[in-house]
Amino acid sequence: MGLRAVVDDDIPVAAGVYTAFMFKDKAILWNELPVNTEGGPLEFDRKPRQGHGGGVTEMVGRRHFVPHVPGTRFLDASSAGEFATDAELALAANWDRTASSVKNMTFIALKTTEA
How would you label 34-65 residue by residue, b for 16+ Cβ within 10 Å and e otherwise? Predict the structure, then answer.
């Protein structure tokens, strides 16, 4: 039927309930946030004695990529720092569904009692 399947033998199980996830195409999108560092996202380092006497200039570029699930919103009121920790991201209370219906979500969790 033209669908792609990813098989993972490490499916989460708790109290005999197995949780599998099913995703639509483009279920997780990526965005880039501005980098808050002194001097901006680019930094240059000059090393005049390298490069057979011609010198070398190294450029470091910093980028912050953030995943986003369409139809959801993170409620960052409970985040202690500038960015949420893994523990804070795992809490269901920190998330809000903005999709008008569950049918409009880009992924589902399928819970079964059989492996």
Answer: eeeeeeeeeeeeeeeeeeeeeeeeeeeeeeee
The sign one gets for the Cα dihedral 45, 48, 52, 54 is: positive
What is d(CA 27, CA 63) in angstroms, rounded to the nearest whole number?
A: 22
Q: For the segment 10-28, what is each residue's pLDDT rounded down to a tens digit?
A: 888 889 898 888 888 888 8
pLDDT in tens, 53-67: 889 999 988 888 888
The whole-model pTM stands at 0.56
| 15 secondary structure, DSSP code | T
